[in-house]
Design a protein that fits this description.
The structure holds two protein chains of two kinds. Chain A is an alpha+beta fold. Chain A has four domains: about 55 residues, no CATH class; about 55 residues; about 160 residues, Jelly Rolls (Sandwich); about 70 residues, 3-Layer(bab) Sandwich (Phage tail protein beta-alpha-beta fold), CATH 3.55.50. Helices cover about 35% and strands about 25% of the residues of chain A. In chain A, strand 12 and strand 13 form a beta hairpin. The radius of gyration of chain A is 30 Å and the shape is elongated. Chain B starts with a helix and ends with a helix. Chain B is an all-alpha fold. Chain B folds into two domains: about 80 residues, Orthogonal Bundle (Rna Polymerase Sigma Factor, Chain: A); about 80 residues, Winged helix-like DNA-binding domain superfamily/Winged helix DNA-binding domain (Arc Repressor Mutant, subunit A), CATH 1.10.10.10. Chain B is globular and about 55 Å long. Chain B contains seven helices and no strands. The chains are: A alpha+beta, B mainly alpha.
Chain lengths: ~375, ~180
């Protein structure tokens, strides 16, 4: 109300909620009338602004309360449908299965005959790129690109951690809604996934989809390279081709620790590698995180923290003096970084906790038990 | 449970007004309803990932607009609709008949109303979003995909221009009036 003394334009009045209410509903009539007649210049402006409001009525819709309630019910139905269909990754495909492949081929042929316009809008059937994948997921993805020459740590909202290699990109939601955790990778990343059997974790990378419940593994999927690779370090993962591919194969291939799979993009075929030590190409690219052991038996805390620093390329600040006589025996192999830190802190004693701010981790501790 | 109640309240509060806005962008009421309902369904489905800073009304209006624009694009594509332009705002402002005291004022207002309704769609939409929906200049800029300085200029220039035309017209109207009397 103070600032109205400064109003100089019609716009000022039109954007004042209280002014609009006075004109339309007579709210605070006394107040506004009094103020208006204080100053003749002002009175002119107010009179004109009033005419503007009267000339710009938007008649409210004739949506009755009943219609609104019916619409609300329709929305709940949509939500339920959507939540059901999310149990399977891509509902469109299940429909396709029912129609049968012949009619799909017919639709494709028809599609092609529509000419270049149609084609420009549709992703090339047999190659999926990161850009196309994230286009399908329209709901607020965060994208992180590693333009440095060192791996970069990303912590996801579910406590999973990803070491993103140089020249790689990861898109992920701020928090995971629904029954799935979906992320999109271009390039290479090492994933350590927090366990949640109710919400499987999917990595979409080029033409393949890697499904996990809780484990650690590496996905290498550069848009410009001929193969996509998944190497498993702990736990079990399932790899399948993306169902958006017209020739996708519903069967998924299960991988156990130290197994890997290679997807040859131009043949759309999988090659399973049961012993990664026999594959020079795969082993030479192994990042420190996959070589370092996280099995500690009676090891000084300082050394454990150093291993974590090297693996995740983070800096850990901790009270060295207080923790210098602390030794731990623990297994942290199969845990994402936040989980590792949590276990460490719990082992050190109940007042110990950590704070994480990007690559900077601070451990606050009074010493160990 | 609390979430569901909040959602219903949100829905009841904004549904009508979003339908109104949607109808001014697309001439198929059923599809507008569908779009608006989809927007709400997504609000629920992705409620955990919506940023906390989202301003509800601006978000809903802009989601409805985006959805209709997408539909429109698809239509243009597959049904060979003639226009390749993006969605166009086609709401006509009316007059607050009951609040107008005398005929002279009514004539003035009718004149202004006619001028406003003859504005280009984009300017009308900016006026509507700013003065009817109460969105900020920044929010309008984001929605219409122009920078906020341009929104501010657009609104200012449009009002100044209308005022000049209106004043010109008014003298005429008043002359006519004088003659009738």
């Amino acid at each position: 109300m103070q600032q109205r003394d400064q109003y100089k334009n019609i716009e000022d009045f039109l954007s004042d909620e209280s002014f609009l209410k006075w004109v339309r509903q007579g709210d605070q009539r006394h107040h506004w009338e009094e103020w208006t007649v204080e100053n003749p210049e002002r009175a002119k402006l107010v009179a004109e602004a009033r005419l503007w409001v009267l000339a710009m009525r938007v008649s409210e819709t004739a949506v009755s309360p009943l219609e609104t309630q019916n619409a609300l019910q329709a929305v709940w139905n949509k939500i339920e449908e959507e939540e059901h269909s999310q149990e399977r990754p891509m509902p469109v495909v299940s429909l396709w299965n029912r129609i049968g492949w012949r009619s799909v081929a017919a639709v494709l042929a028809l599609g092609l005959s529509l000419g270049w316009l149609y084609k420009a809008q549709t992703p090339t059937q047999e190659k999926l790129t990161y850009a196309e994948l994230i286009k399908q997921d329209t709901d607020g993805l965060i994208e992180q690109t590693n333009n440095t020459n060192k791996p970069q740590l990303i912590t996801l909202s579910d406590g999973s951690s990803v070491l993103l290699q140089p020249k790689s990109k990861l898109s992920y939601p701020k928090s995971f809604a629904g029954n799935e955790r979906n992320v999109y990778l271009s390039g290479e990343g090492f994933f350590e996934i927090s366990k949640n059997p109710k919400k499987p974790f999917f990595v979409f990378a080029n033409e393949i989809v890697t499904k996990v419940i809780g484990t650690s593994f590496r996905v290498k999927a550069y848009g410009d390279q001929p193969n996509v690779e998944v190497v498993v370090r702990t736990g079990k993962v399932n790899v399948s081709s993306n169902q958006a591919l017209s020739s996708f194969n519903t069967a998924s291939i299960q991988l156990l620790p130290n197994q890997a799979i290679r997807f040859v993009r131009n043949r759309l075929a999988f090659e399973k590698i049961t012993d990664i030590t026999q594959e020079k190409e795969l082993t030479k690219a192994v990042a420190p995180i996959e070589q370092l052991s996280f099995e500690f038996s009676d090891v000084p805390v300082a050394q454990i923290l150093k291993t974590i620093e090297q693996t995740y390329l983070v800096e850990i600040d901790y009270p060295r003096e207080r923790l210098k006589d602390c030794y731990l025996t623990t297994s942290l192999s199969d845990q994402p970084l936040p989980e590792k830190l949590k276990i460490l802190c719990e082992s050190l004693g109940n007042t110990t906790r950590y704070e994480m701010n990007g690559n900077q981790i601070t451990i606050l501790s009074e010493g160990c038990n | 449970m609390g979430d569901e109640l909040a959602f219903s309240t949100l829905f009841e509060r904004y549904y009508g007004s979003l339908i109104r806005y949607g109808n001014s962008l697309m001439a198929y009421p059923e599809r507008v309803q569908d779009c608006v309902q989809d927007v709400f369904a997504n609000v629920w489905l992705y409620r955990n990932s919506l940023s906390e800073s989202v301003v509800v009304k601006a978000y809903l209006l802009s989601s409805v607009r985006k959805r209709i624009a997408r539909l429109h694009e698809r239509d243009t594509f597959f049904r060979q609709t003639t226009s390749l332009e993006s969605v166009e705002f086609s709401l006509d402002f009316s007059m607050e008949d009951q609040l107008i005291a005398n005929e002279e004022t009514a004539a003035q207002i009718a004149q202004l109303n006619r001028l406003i309704n003859a504005l280009p769609a984009r300017q009308k939409e900016a006026l509507y979003l700013r003065y009817h929906q109460g969105l900020s200049i920044e929010q309008i800029g984001e929605m219409l995909d122009i920078n906020h300085q341009s929104v501010s200029n657009l609104l200012h220039r449009c009002i100044q221009h209308l005022r000049r035309e209106w004043k010109g017209d008014l003298t005429l109207v008043l002359l006519l009036f004088a003659r009738i009397l």
